[in-house]
Amino acid sequence: xxxxxxxxxxxxxxxxxxxxxxxxQMVSAAKLRRAQNSMLAARPYSNKLFDMxxxxxxxxxxxxxxxxxxxxxxxxxxxxxxxxxxxxxxFNTNILKETARLMxxxxxxxxxxxxxAVGKKARDYFHRFGVPVRKTYIDFYKNVKYEDAQExxxxxxxxxxxxxxxxxxxxxxxxxTVLQQTPKRARLLPVEPQSTGGTGGTGDGVLDRFIFEPSxxxxxxxxxxxxxxxQIFRAILESRVSEEAARMIAMENANKNTKELIGKxxxxxxxxxxxxITTELMDIVGGAEAxxx
Amino acid sequence: MAExxxxxxxxxxxFSFTETVDELTAPGTLGEFGVLPGHTGFMTSLxxxxxTYKIGSTSKxxxxxxxxxxxxxxxxxxxxxxxxxxx
Lengths: 293, 87
Hints:
The structure holds two protein chains of two kinds. By secondary structure, chain A is α/β, with parallel strands linked by helices.
């Protein structure tokens, strides 16, 4: 039976942990709301851009645009989005597991990999397993700017155009609900615009109604990289929302656990206290009896 | 003319702006162009610069960076990397 003081110390320490997790939960909740807002704010742009793109590309010849062109996969670039900080449940584990699975699949097909790690957790993971990483981006989650996504995209698009990579896949946590985030892989390059779902019309008739200035090829060539950077930006925002949601839930659970633990410890403490009082009483009664005989 | 144009500007960081305007001038890559109601559908890229639009006789300005404009059915959609209303 642990003595009273030990239990008391534990209760204090658990209570303190509880305070921290509670604070973290509230911070995450606030950050989640902010992240969600910026994700929603980015949506109209993405949708319109996608519309515009599908609209134009539905009528052009895929072959003549390197970013639309399918070619044999020899080198695949992977962007892995994880968080910089831990304490967010299975958030990073899920992503890294999914990445490992994907890497195995690709290796099985004899495809070479080139990896871009975003977030400290991805960096550490690849470092630990001795996987060479082409580029690491850390410490920009606090304030995600569009320029950050552009920076990542610009470089990748360049290596895609000069054919040092043949495909780009991004692995990130898709935000479904606050309670559910699922790892998702999305192929960003070559771009695959859906010919349906555009602002209207498919086929060759579309372009006749539009005047392009400069030529449609030039516009499309400029829009395609835009689209890629936008998709990366969106994935980053989504990953950030997922991270905060995961952290909030993890902290909520931690909170629940500390409460439970405190309850148990208090019970134990009271039992121990009562036991010690009983023993003391017995001692006194025993002593008194011995004296009276 | 009773007809008007709808100008819509969106950026990825959430700046979004919609206004009904009478006339618009924008810095296209191949030179500045103007749009009046009834313009034919067209699509163009814009230089970093100032979009000027007129409501009645007052003109207002918006600075855009690396943008694309689509004009269709008197609706002007501008997708810009960033945009800012000039005072």
